[in-house]
Amino acid sequence: MRLPGREAPGADLVDLWGSQSADVEGSNNWIGVKNPAVDAILNEVVAARTRPQLVARLRALDRVLRFGYYVVPQYFSNTYRVSYRAGKFEQPEVKPQYYQAEDWVTTTWWRKK
Question: Within 10 Å of residue 33's Cβ, how many Cβ atoms?
Fold first, then answer.
């Protein structure tokens, strides 16, 4: 899954990496990260008042996530990588005109019953 960065990340990261969202159906913590160190850094990220504070705290978060092998950094790819099990998933018949493949697949496909 590709997680593009934001110019000013903050509370959205709590949903991605916070322990409280790990067991919540529909949250973005798909990996199920439950790490007190990550939670502590996320609290500091959200509380950052200046850009230098935010950058330093995000770098700390990045180090902890990479150490836990939750993230494999990939800085550039000119291809879309989408993998699925044929016959197991369905998708809408009408496709959006503009989309990023990874985001569209994970938010619009569903599993067949």
Answer: 19
- Look at the block and give the residue holding tokens 């322990």: 19
Question: What does pTM read for this prediction?
Answer: 0.61
Task: Return the domain boundaries, the chain.
Answer: 12-67
Separation of alpha carbons 6 and 16, rounded Å: 13
Supply 81's token pair: 């990588």
For residues 84, 32, 60, 54, the Cα torsion angle rounded to the nearest 10 degrees is: 90
Contact 106, 1 (CB under 8 A): yes
Contact indicator for 42, 18 with CB cutoff of 8 Å: yes
Element counts in the chain: helices (H) and strands (E): 4, 2
Alpha-carbon span 92 to 66, nearest angstrom:
35
Max mean pLDDT among 20-29, 53-62, 67-76 falls in 53-62
Give the chain's radius of gyration (CA, Å): 16
